[in-house]
């Protein structure tokens, strides 16, 4: 299968591209710069130049391939306005990709976060939260899944709070970056809230499996660690960086503060049983030992 991948040079995307190519697929990667094109080319992918705002380029990429995996996002969480702009850009991009696939029965694998459900682990059938700072992403993912009724084999991979590799990535990576800047390895609240996690290489396998075989209109959980306490994450970060560990105000995390403070464990039992996906790479707490002081 020839697959159009957006975000193919990021931490997750580079793992997905490698997984696809090593399993006999070819990749056309969206590249917004010479540097990104060089990285994608070195990995064995063809490239098409453009970014998420280049809707005609996205349509062209989808039109000339057998399926799409969407991963690109600006990841600018510096302010509420920046987050809103990033969500709006991504939403327009996904709708353009979906329009290009209508009536083709080709796969379109999109991405969201795992939902959080009060008092229990979230599961694949739980609805995504459509309010809050990134609620717009959930609304767009829901719209993509509804394309199943219009001849698109649309499916969603729900990623946990931290997708990691070599001690970096996701919310834990943000905690590490803030700790380096502030001199304190902090956590919101009392730190007992739980975040799910997955190694990027394990997540990449699930993206491939969903692309190859998931029914239209379905959602899947790329969850390896069902819920690590945030205080334990901060303690590993603090030890690796030689910094004190302490509770800090939720406002430290800007527009994501409310999410950082939430207890949000998640399960992937149905995904594992149905698709035969089994994570094999290090857990988050083990991988954080790769953080360099």
Automatic annotation (TrEMBL):
Pfam families: Epimerase (PF01370). Residues 3-215 form the NAD-dependent epimerase/dehydratase domain. It comes from the Bacteria. This is 3-beta hydroxysteroid dehydrogenase. Signal peptide: none annotated. One of its GO terms (molecular function) is aldehyde dehydrogenase (NAD+) activity. It comes from Actinoplanes awajinensis subsp. mycoplanecinus. InterPro entries: Epimerase_deHydtase, NAD(P)-bd_dom_sf, NAD(P)-dependent_oxidoreduct. The lineage of its organism: Bacteria, Bacillati, Actinomycetota, Actinomycetes, Micromonosporales. GO terms for cellular component: cytoplasm.
């Amino acid at each position: 299968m020839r697959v159009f991948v957006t975000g193919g040079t990021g931490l997750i995307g580079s793992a997905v591209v490698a997984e696809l190519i090593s399993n006999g697929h070819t990749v056309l990667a969206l590249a917004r710069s010479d540097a990104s094109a060089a990285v994608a080319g070195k990995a064995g992918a063809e490239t098409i130049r453009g970014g998420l705002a280049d809707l005609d380029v996205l349509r062209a990429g989808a039109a000339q391939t057998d399926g799409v995996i969407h991963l690109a996002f600006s990841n600018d969480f510096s302010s509420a306005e920046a987050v809103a702009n990033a969500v709006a850009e991504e939403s327009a991009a996904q709708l353009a990709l979906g329009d290009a696939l209508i009536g083709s029965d080709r796969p379109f694998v999109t991405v969201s976060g795992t939902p959080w459900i009060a008092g229990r682990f979230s599961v694949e059938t739980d609805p995504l939260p459509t309010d809050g700072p990134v609620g717009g992403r959930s609304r767009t993912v829901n719209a993509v899944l509804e394309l199943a009724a219009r001849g698109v084999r649309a499916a969603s991979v729900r990623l946990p709070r931290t997708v990691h590799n070599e001690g970096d990535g996701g919310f834990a990576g943000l905690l590490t970056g803030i700790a380096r800047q502030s001199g304190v390895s902090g956590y919101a609240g009392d730190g007992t809230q739980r975040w799910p996690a997955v190694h990027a290489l394990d997540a990449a396998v699930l993206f491939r499996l969903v692309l190859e075989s998931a029914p239209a209109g379905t959602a899947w959980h790329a969850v390896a660690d069902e819920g690590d306490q945030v205080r334990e994450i901060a303690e590993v970060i603090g030890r690796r960086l030689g910094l004190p560990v302490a509770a800090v105000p939720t406002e430290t995390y800007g527009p994501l503060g409310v999410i950082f403070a939430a207890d949000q464990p998640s399960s992937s039992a149905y995904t594992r049983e149905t698709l035969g996906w089994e994570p094999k790479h290090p857990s988050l707490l083990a991988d954080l030992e790769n953080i360099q002081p």
